[in-house]
Amino acid sequence: MPKLFVTGLCKSKPAATVEHLLSVLMPEAAHIQLLRGSQECEHKGHAYIHFSDEEIMMTVLERLKKMLPLPELPSVQLRPVNQVAATESGSFNLPPELSNFSSSQCVAVPSASSFSFLNNLEGVVARCDAGNDTVVLAFQGDEEASKAIAMHNGKLKRCIPPLLADVLAQRAGERRGRVGDTAVDEKSDDIVATYEARGFQPLSLAQMLSIIGDLVDGRGRVAVSDSAGDVAILNLPAFASALE
């Protein structure tokens, strides 16, 4: 099923509002897949818009390109999914040091030492030296990043998401460096207390071993989600068959 990748969606707007705006802009869409955040009303600023066929998708894309910038979503960008890799092949991956920021609110500045305006940019909340004379700046939000890119056209490049391998490597290094750290133990205690306040009870060692035994014997259950967001509960043999 052909689909458009939509980025630059304003994250200050609730997810339901953004979904409604997208449905009004693209009533031809068969399915709107807004990438959600950790909270119900949050989203990541990106979406996939599914269409029944390629011709409808291209018609919608051409129509919306003529309307840009959109009044309700001024920073939005659209492109077919099969063009994402080609379009972004020259883009800069967000460094793992800034992975707590959305890539849409971060920009890379190649040949940074030759630009004197970097220290005067408004809305910058973090920066990272990415090597090879490249600096990555994180802004307060998507709108501030878009404004900076527009003001210095060609000198700033919006980042794309970080490489998963880089993020995992950094997290592993942080964990190794904090083994035995009291702060980590305190954070773990806080997490347990938070879940207990919600009515959850920690498992005893015997309960945990019993659950592990069920998993080993194939009696466990796995919740899986497909690309459309539908969730199914499978027993382990069925899950293994699905993987094969």
Explain this structure:
The chain is α+β, with helices and mostly antiparallel strands and 244 residues long. It folds into three domains: 3-83, Alpha-Beta Plaits (2-Layer Sandwich); 92-160, Alpha-Beta Plaits; 164-174 and 190-243, no CATH class. It has eight helices and ten strands. A four-stranded antiparallel beta sheet has the order 2-3-1-4, covered by helices on one side. The chain has a four-stranded antiparallel beta sheet with strand order 6-7-5-8. The longest helix has 16 residues, at 182-197. Mean pLDDT is 77; it is low at 83-90.
Task: Briefly say what this structure is.
The protein has 244 residues and is an alpha+beta fold.
Query: Strand order, biggest sheet?
Result: 2-3-1-4
Can you tell me the residue ranges where pLDDT is under 50 for at least 5 consecutive residues? 83-90
Question: Strand count, sense and closure of the main sheet?
Answer: 4 strands, antiparallel
Distance between the termini: 23 Å
- The structural class is alpha+beta
| CATH architectural type of the largest domain | 2-Layer Sandwich
The total count of helices amounts to 8
| Whole-number count of domains | 3
Q: Roughly how many Å is the radius of gyration?
A: 22 Å
Name of the CATH superfamily of the largest domain: RRM (RNA recognition motif) domain
**Can you give the helix content as a percent range?**
25-40%
Q: Overall 3D geometry?
A: globular
Topology-level CATH name of the largest domain: Alpha-Beta Plaits
What string, H for helix and E for strand, traces the elements in order? EHEEHEHEEEHEHHHEEH
- What is the number of E strands? 10
| Average pLDDT | 77
CATH class of the largest domain: Alpha Beta
Beta-strand level of the residues, as a percent range?
A: 15-25%
